[in-house]
Amino acid sequence: MSAHESTYVPKTGIEKWLDTRLPIVRFGADYMSLPTPRNLNYWWTFGGILALCLVIQIATGVILAMHYVPNTELAFASVERIMRDVNGGDLIRYTHANGASMFFIAVYLHMLRGLYYGSYKAPREMIWIVGCLIFFLMIATAFLGYVLPWGQMSYWGAEVITNLIGAIPVVGEPVLIWLRGGPAIDNATLNRFFSLHYLLPFVIAGCVVLHLWALHHAGQNNPVGILIPKDRLKKDTVPFHPYFTVKDGFAIVLFLILFAIFVFFMPNALGHADNYIPANPLVTPAHIVPEWYMLPFYAILRAIPDKFGGVVAMFAAIGVLFVLPWLDTSKVRSMRYRPAMRTFFVIFVLVGLGLGWCGAQLPDAPVVPGMPSFQLFDGQLNSYLWLTRLFTAYYFAFFLIIMPIVGLKETPLPIPATISEPVLPGGGDAMTAAAPASAEKKG
Amino acid sequence: MAESVVTEGEGGDATRRDFIHIAAGAAAVGAGVMAVWPLINQMNPAADTLALASIEFDMTKVQEGQQVVIKWQGKPVFVRYRTPAELQRVIADNNARDLKEPQTDAERTKPGHEPYLVVLGNCTHLGCIPTFGTGDFGGWFCPCHGSHYDASGRIRKGPAPLNLVVPEYEFLSDTRIKIG
């Protein structure tokens, strides 16, 4: 928290010498003693998990780059060489590939936590906005990385996604050629994608520093969603270490178990078999789908009958997140005390999953096979096209209509004055009366 | 800031200093843009990429009813020798109401060589390669997002906005074309 005063006292001579020149030990010590709301639940552990994900991706990625060759003639073979001949290469590549999926699982849960507990509301708007920027950079990085193995899905994914830019009126075509470095996806494209795929994770790391800076300046949100009053600071917070280092550590262990299940037992479960076929610019795979974490946005792209309109909708689906703090009119942060909004939130989560499901289906396929249907404008009503449109409408309505209106109309439940009040009779005063005494004993 | 302008303005120093600030700032911005431009322009197609601009093709390699796919500038080009039945159908559809980008078949072929259709093989939606013979209009169908083209490569149904692109090409002789 911003009001956090340094309690670090340099002990050894080296520490004292360092403290007047580069107070890096003080920085670390202050970080560890940060007053943290004592009621943070396990949904708050995904921040630490995400930091670990970024470290894993950068570490395995730097190693893979030692063996990978960014050339259209050699890229696919170099990846196969990593898989077969490089010592432990298959494990490192599977960790990197599945690591991307794990990263997105964690980031989606992290974002939904922020959405549910209102972590984006004043004074935390900048934490949220920088977070959205990180999410966007993650999508870009994941896309660039997926192109590198130069398999069929790599090539055609790159073809389809870069073509989105070509849909922009007037400047689209020149920008498309500039981006690809030629009239088609080719060696120039692969080279620059590799360069940018190496660069962007460090940009993400820089944004993470800003994200944490904003977090520690504004203070962490908590499940009750209230700002901790200054005079309650001692009573309602605990030092980050050891309380939350241990809690985060435990969550990380559970998360790594899930990670390991994928890496060791089902490393290709989240991938596509087509990407083990070398890229062929003359043959398109029968069914192109992006990785699972892009499917909801891909579904939104396909829901709009106009090419440029689809591109706009897809980017708007991410863009709307940036202005979220100003779309929510409610002063109550946590949805624990907003029963009406909570219902809409649950539907939103289901719609998000539904969009992901729709993104993996052929748009013309019937949702319920055999059910009689009729033609509505450009497609059968009983088709994934119309189901996707229904979900897309809810996705945008949730942010643009439901959030502003529900915030003004709803009657929230009474909000506790302190974070101790809901769990302790007497608001935790009895317990806090004992706290200084025990501190004295330790003294 | 306002104070310094008032006090120093009397001697004329402030206006001169302001001018120097603006001039220096403008020069720095100009220099910055000029320095950055090559860093951006390097991503445009290189000279050797542009050098692959044209190819020649022997049309006798294509039999009637057959399609040959050749690679030009990294992209597939369909060279199709259409059957009389296909020709009849696309000419009958010249004024069909479902044409999104109305064109007659004659506008998409070279005079005297009407059976031959030369088009880029990328769907105008998002660039996948349509397959021949599976669509609703006797032409191509794109498996990615469901666009239907007729045997003249005109978009008839689906999300694609434009007809398959006819590249710039000419007949060097009766049997030889130059694309690009």
N-end to C-end Cα span of chain A: 25 Å
Share of β-strand residues of chain B: 15-25%
Radius of gyration of chain B: 28 Å
Termini gap of chain B: 62 Å
Largest pleated sheet of chain A: 2 strands, antiparallel
Strand order of the largest sheet of chain A: 1-2
Proportion of residues in extended strands of chain A:
under 5%
Sketch the major β-sheet of chain B. Answer: 4 strands, antiparallel
- Unreliable stretches of chain B: 1-9
Averaged pLDDT of chain B: 88
Q: Spatial order of the strands in the main sheet of chain B?
A: 5-6-7-8
The amount of helix of chain B comes to 25-40%
Instruction: Tell me the helix content of chain A.
Output: 55-70%
Multimeric organization: heterodimer
Number of strands of chain B: 10
Mean pLDDT of chain A: 92
Shape of chain A: globular
Architecture overview:
The complex is a heterodimer of chains A (443) and B (180). Chain A has 443 residues and is mainly α. Chain A contains 17 helices and 4 strands. A two-stranded antiparallel sheet of chain A has the order 1-2. In chain A, α15 (339-359) packs antiparallel against α16 (384-409). The two termini of chain A are 25 Å apart. Residues 431-443 of chain A have low confidence and may be disordered. Chain B has 4 helices and 10 strands; from the N terminus they run αααβββαβββββββ. In chain B, a hairpin with a 4-residue loop joins β7 (147-150) and β8 (155-157). The A-B interface holds A 156, 159-160, 162-164, 177-179, 181-186, 188, 192, 281-284, 286-288, 302, 305-307, 310, 362-364 and B 40, 43-46, 49, 69, 71, 73-76, 121-122, 125-129, 143-146, 159-161.
